[in-house]
From TrEMBL:
Residues 21-41 are annotated as: Disordered. Residues 21-33 have a biased composition (Basic and acidic residues). Keywords: Copper, Electron transport, Metal-binding, Transport. This is Plastocyanin/azurin family copper-binding protein. It comes from the Bacteria. Coiled coil: none annotated.
Amino acid sequence: MRLTFSLLVLPLIFTGCGDATSDHSEHTQHDHNAAGAVPAGVTDPANPVSVVDGVTVIEMTGNDRMKFNLESFTVPAGSPVRLTFTNVGRMPKAAMGHNVVFLTAEADAAAFATAAAAARDQDYIPADFSQQIVAHTQLLGPGESDTIEFTAPEEPGDYEYLCSFPAHMYAGMRGVMTVESP
């Protein structure tokens, strides 16, 4: 009797253990299901940086391991930039929200990150440091995307970008946008 029960019940248990996201393959990068899980197929783009009609187009992602898919990229000075940022993680926004903040060349990233940690009500964008921000996305939860457009600084150099959610920059969510003379 016990063997018969095991042979009948175990296959039913294992049948229910499939990939929970496999039936959501029709979703796009811009939506997520009711449980907040990232839809199947939302992955890092194959070519995250391209130039289309003179605009540098960047497709950046952030994940639950606190990493961006891009650690660096280059843009011409004074040129238009279009960034689409997607949180490809699965953890809730309150625990693992992500954004991208581009800082001016003279900004102190550590000081910015420290001030950002105290700016919870402003989605971790500290008002006192607004003059040190070139551009930033919204703070995003799992499966959410935000597209921003801005003009690259005129001055060639290295401009840091980071996630301003507390401790994410220190965990490795940072990179460099290099601005080169055209």
